[in-house]
């Protein structure tokens, strides 16, 4: 058993649940923070805590060596303010508790780019978490592909429900998806690594694809056939861009289980190219990430194992 006490926030979420299991498997003492500990059935020991309630963080962080911060407010209309307040409170509480490292899973995107509100908020959280003085290790990722992930489920449900895809302008944007398994391996790999303290790393899978590529290849793996894609040349800026984003978000809500607010926040990020340009994570974690088709097969396999039909 490790002598490290590790806290995982967002332990009931897509990445958090997998991370908690991996940390327990590695022999660490894991504390899973949740607003409803009595309902928690995942790995580790449940502890009550709410990012929106700073007082609840005191007990959750007591005696913690390393804390993982996996909290985002995508479905909220006021997510930027909520994320900022939560990160500020968590960073301060972690400093008071004597935490020696915070690990945060943020979003890819060049610092000089015109970031969407979603990506801009994640970048702000990186800074606010370290406001109390605790070293923060940031892992920046694009889409994390795995069963239960919002972005992946959006892809899976789209190619499952439509015989023809009308591709908006952002379909040509390049991205670098990463498998859930690989993202978790990187998160575990930087745990208590002093050479990762106070650093930001970019992580991604083995391939750079456009969103159209992702949809078409997911269709081949999932359905055994390519899905026809018709590109629509629209100006994706100003009023026209707002209309396209709004229409796309309502379309997603109708065709998938993604709600309108979450869909809008995701779509607004899809104009920004999110590709790994800094490979310094290799200095800390040795890993050969998998390709896109393999991560799709893994996600679909996990779905079947949980008793859900394709």
Distance between the termini: 39 Å
Low-confidence stretches: 238-256
- Strand line-up in the sheet with most strands: 3-2-1-4-5-6-11
Question: Which fold does the CATH topology of the domain at 5-144 and 178-203 and 275-289 refer to?
Answer: Rossmann fold
Average pLDDT number: 84
Estimated share of beta-strand residues: 15-25%
Determine the structural class based on helices, strands and strand pairing. Answer: alpha/beta
What is the N-to-C order of secondary-structure elements (H for helix, E for strand)?
Answer: EHEEHEHEHEEHEEEHEEHEHHH
Approximate shape:
globular
CATH superfamily caption of the domain at 5-144 and 178-203 and 275-289 = NAD(P)-binding Rossmann-like Domain
The number of distinct helices, counting runs of at least 4 residues, comes to 10
Helix content: 40-55%
Strand tally: 13
CATH architecture heading of the domain at 5-144 and 178-203 and 275-289: 3-Layer(aba) Sandwich
Short summary:
This protein is α/β, with parallel strands linked by helices. It has 10 helices and 13 strands.
